[in-house]
Write a structure and sequence with these properties.
- It is built from seven helices and no strands.
- By secondary structure, the chain is mainly α.
- Helix 4 runs antiparallel to helix 5 and helix 6 packs antiparallel against helix 7.
- The chain starts with a helix and ends with a helix.
Length: about 110
């Protein structure tokens, strides 16, 4: 028998795997990135439990705002100021429409 936590983790892993496959098919579609954020919030877990960082790093090319945005959230949660600031710099270059927002995020980074 599985514990409820093990069952939840198995369900999370399956959802994440399916969502990452969708991202790999269409990396510029915002919806699956938001779905991953929703999973994190629904289960009240850290991004680390979703096990998505390495896959996102592979997907995050020079123009993929969505992957970099989610990576910024992950690095902020990990309190990795170096990676967070590198990612924010990338976002400032590729997402000029939200330039003030990314500047605000950098200024309000939790250390």
């Amino acid at each position: 028998m599985f514990t409820e936590e093990e069952r939840d983790q198995a369900q999370i892993d399956e959802e994440v795997d399916n969502t990452m496959k969708m991202i790999e098919l269409v990396p510029q579609n915002e919806s699956p990135y938001n779905y991953l954020r929703g999973l994190k919030n629904h289960y009240k877990i850290d991004f680390a439990k979703l096990k998505i960082k390495d896959r996102l790093i592979e997907i995050a090319d020079d123009n993929n705002y969505h992957a970099h945005s989610l990576l910024a959230d992950i690095y902020e949660e990990e309190v990795d100021d170096t990676k967070f600031n590198e990612t924010i710099e990338t976002l400032l270059k590729i997402d000029s429409i939200r330039r003030k927002y990314w500047g605000w995020r950098r200024e309000n980074f939790k250390k």
